[in-house]
Design goal:
The complex is a heterodimer of chains A (203) and B (121).
Chain A (H helix, E strand, L loop, with lengths): L6 E3 L4 E5 L5 E4 L4 E6 L3 E7 L4 E5 L19 H19 L7 E7 L7 E2 L2 E2 H15 L4 E6 L5 E6 L5 E5 L3 H21 L7 E2 L3
Parallel strand pairs in A: 2-4, 7-10
Antiparallel strand pairs in A: 1-2, 3-6, 4-11, 5-6, 5-7, 8-9, 11-12
Helix pairs in contact in A: 1-2
Chain B lengths: L3 E5 L3 H13 L3 E5 L2 H10 L4 E4 L8 H10 L8 E5 L4 H10 L3 E4 L4 H11 L2
Helix pairs in contact in B: 2-3
Classes of the chains: A alpha+beta (203), B alpha/beta (121).
């Protein structure tokens, strides 16, 4: 009996967890985390000392690249992206990981079917944000596979940080990914802002 | 002026964003990356308010709050938690440790400034 939606991948001979848009998964076990990316981006983070890893899958709702310095992280969209990566980092820290031992890999951001929103290239925006965030957090990006015009399936091995990227050329599958991507982008634009009210205990 | 805020978070991007926000609102922000650095900063600077994250490698936010509340000169300094942790259990731990409030990330910029203004008025 496997936990948490894991299933056995016969090809990789390992348990596998597939993550969808907006999700994040981390593990101390020797598993493979997979996801399918269009214009979205996945950041995979690996702790080089503890040998644990995790991966997320996110997309920015709006453009942030026109903002400078700390203001990038103050827009609702920037905070959305920041939260997606912070959640991954926090999950690894809860498992004992240390930021100073983290290395990252970045995937995705395809320019699929000229997917644009209000004149900006959503895929490029996601890629730029992910690289900028990692630079600001001083987490080294040791490899990446970004841009292009095809969707990709990414498989990240949590014990070794090895990654396998497969481009999806089957048109029916690519079409399904495009459709899901548009629906997801619409959903997150409607969802933000996601703020909850501050709780003050004694005022 | 009594407007110095110590911001404690292991995320450089969060420190950049919140420092920019509170700086624009007229506050003097000093940043620290973990609880131990925060205590060192408090020894060297007069601080009027602390905003802290919870999950940090070198001394987490809850322990930091406890240390502040144990200190005779610091115990009345208001501390607010700014964290992505949102469970009732965690928030209650924060209250028990002595936090004055809890703001969940992603936060609303205006609400954060309002809370700071209310506390440092």
């Amino acid at each position: 009996m496997l936990d948490e939606g894991l299933h056995y991948n016969k090809y990789f001979k390992k348990n596998e967890k597939h993550i969808f848009m907006g999700e994040c998964y981390t593990s101390c076990e020797d598993i493979v985390i997979t996801t399918t990316l269009g214009s979205c981006v996945s950041v995979a983070i690996f702790d080089t000392v503890l040998k644990i890893g995790g991966m997320n899958h996110f997309m920015l709702p709006e453009q942030v690249s026109d903002r400078t310095n700390g203001d990038v992280y103050l827009s609702d969209s920037g905070k959305y992206g920041m939260q997606a990566i912070e959640t991954l980092i926090n999950c690894l820290q809860k498992k004992g990981g240390k930021r100073r031992d983290f290395v990252a890999r970045i995937f995705g951001g395809s320019r699929i079917n000229s997917f644009r929103h209000r004149g900006f290239d959503v895929g490029a925006e996601n890629i730029n944000f992910a690289f900028r965030f990692m630079a600001d957090e001083k987490i080294p990006v040791i490899s990446y596979d970004v841009y292009g015009c095809l969707p990709r399936r990414v498989s990240f091995f949590t014990k070794t940080s090895k990654t396998v990227v497969k481009y999806i050329i089957d048109e029916s599958e690519a079409s399904r990914i495009r459709q899901n991507m548009h629906l997801y982008h619409r959903k997150i634009r409607q969802q933000i802002p996601l703020h909850e009210m501050p709780v003050l205990f004694d005022l | 002026m009594d407007n110095t805020i110590l911001l404690v978070d292991d995320s450089a991007t969060l420190r950049m964003g919140v420092s920019s926000l509170l700086g624009q609102a007229g506050y003097n922000v000093i940043a620290a990356g973990d609880g131990i650095s925060a205590l060192k900063t408090m020894n060297e600077n007069k601080v009027n308010m602390v905003i802290t994250d919870i999950i940090m490698a070198e001394m987490d936010g809850l322990k930091l709050i406890e240390e502040i509340k144990k200190h005779s000169e610091w115990k009345n300094i208001p501390v607010i938690v700014l964290s992505s942790e949102s469970s009732t259990e965690e928030v209650e731990k924060g209250r028990k440790a002595g936090a004055l409030g809890w703001i969940i990330k992603p936060f609303d910029n205006d609400k954060l400034v309002q809370v700071v203004r209310k506390i440092l008025c």
